[in-house]
């Protein structure tokens, strides 16, 4: 594996396990078997390394969502269609070995970490596309409400998929052991409910 890719992979794991603030460049360098000069040569700084970690998988999520959204057209699009398009690309990152990335982004989002600026623009563009489609499904609902739903869907998706095993441990019992597919399916159900909003009480 090339030095830059090895540094990104090691940093992704350490940042997710310990938190970005608790990981020094020296720790990344030692775990990757490189020297400090290599980190500065490829990334310039710790922030540059973090940006590289975040952007790599973010591009995969964005392209996956773009692909799924492109298939959704016409009046028959449902909240569940949008929930699938929102959640499944993150699941694909997990399946591709990106569990540490999902956990890291979820942790940074939960703490309001400014380091997410590297991918904020890309996510904002995709979120705007989802909000536009939600507006068609929920005419009359305030844009601020739809943005709130998007943010909650994002928090939930990253929290659950950032540690699927934790969710399984919380829910497992003898009569119904939960597997990863169960977790994802139920996550899509809940994101669907978030996108759909409360039932009409009129």
From TrEMBL:
Record SUPFAM superfamilies: Homeodomain-like, Tetracyclin repressor-like, C-terminal domain
Domain HTH tetR-type stretches: 1-61
InterPro entries linked to this entry: Homeodomain-like_sf, HTH-type_TetR-like_transc_reg, HTH_TetR, PsrA_TetR_C, Tet_transcr_reg_TetR-rel_C_sf
UniProt KW keywords: DNA-binding, Transcription, Transcription regulation
UniProt DNA-binding residue ranges: 24-43
Gene3D superfamilies: Tetracycline Repressor, domain 2
Name recorded for this polypeptide: TetR/AcrR family transcriptional regulator
């Amino acid at each position: 594996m090339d030095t830059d890719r090895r540094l990104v992979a090691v940093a992704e794991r350490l940042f997710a396990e310990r938190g970005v603030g608790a990981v020094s460049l020296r720790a990344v360098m030692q775990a990757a078997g490189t020297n400090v000069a290599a980190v500065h040569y490829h990334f310039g700084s710790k922030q540059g390394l973090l940006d590289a970690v975040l952007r790599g998988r973010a591009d995969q999520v964005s392209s996956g969502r773009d692909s799924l959204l492109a298939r959704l057209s016409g009046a028959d699009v449902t909240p569940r269609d949008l929930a699938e398009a929102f959640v499944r690309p993150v699941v694909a990152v997990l399946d591709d070995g990106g569990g540490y990335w999902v956990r890291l982004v979820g942790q940074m989002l939960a703490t309001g970490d400014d380091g997410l600026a590297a991918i904020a623009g890309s996510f904002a563009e995709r979120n705007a596309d989802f909000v536009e489609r939600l507006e068609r499904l929920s005419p009359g609902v305030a844009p601020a409400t739809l943005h709130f739903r998007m943010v909650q869907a994002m928090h939930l998706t990253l929290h659950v998929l950032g540690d699927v095993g934790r969710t399984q441990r919380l829910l497992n019992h003898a009569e119904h052991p939960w597997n990863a597919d169960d977790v994802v399916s139920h996550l899509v159900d809940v994101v669907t409910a978030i996108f759909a909003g409360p039932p009409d009480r009129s």
